[in-house]
Amino acid sequence: RVRVRGLSIYRPIIYGNTATVLTSRERDALPHPDHTHRWTVAVRSAASEPDSDQVGGADDLSYFIKRVTFKLHDTYANPSRNVDKSPFEVSETGWGEFEITIRITFITESGEKAMTLYHHLKLHPWTASGDPEIPPLDIAMKLGPVHSWQYDEIVFNDPYQNFLNLLTTH
Ligand code: SLL
Q1: For the chain, what is the domain count?
Q2: Which atom of ligand 1 is nearest to the CA of 95?
Q3: Which of 84, 124, 157, 165 is most enclosed, with most CB atoms within 10 A?
Q4: DSSP labels, 112-167
């Protein structure tokens, strides 16, 4: 277990959410008639991949991430959601925005401490006028999906030699 002193290695990620307004037919099919949106919160690689048209790369982060825990609002059943394989994401329906705590646990061999990120779940579109009012659902539906993503870099300082090898040979 040798650390490589003085070396930093980073991996680019994005984290955030997409959201769409449910159609009235979709709402009728749900057990929660008050839910207005379907959303997905995710942690993804920010590395570009050829032929990937999704937000973020298609790259699988599980070679160094063991688990991502998404802590949802307490109005949800089992608000603490563990995801142990790629894609590291949770999809739900709901009616309100709230802060999601995202805890990233690295593979045991890394010897790295878990990392915590915060993301404000965004359901309502920003309008061109900068008007802070929430647009009505029929207008929001015409505006299309909402995307709210942040870029970050996971930095490993003085990594263990084995972990460094794993990262660089991936
Ligand atoms: C608000 N502070 O008042 C926020 C809370 C909670 C959102 C939003 C689903 C709940 C369920 C849901 O959308 N919760 O499934 O019961 O705007």
Answers
A1: 1
A2: 13
A3: 124
A4: PPPEEEEEE---SPPPTT---SPPPHHHHHHH--EEEEEEEEEEEES-BHHHHHHH
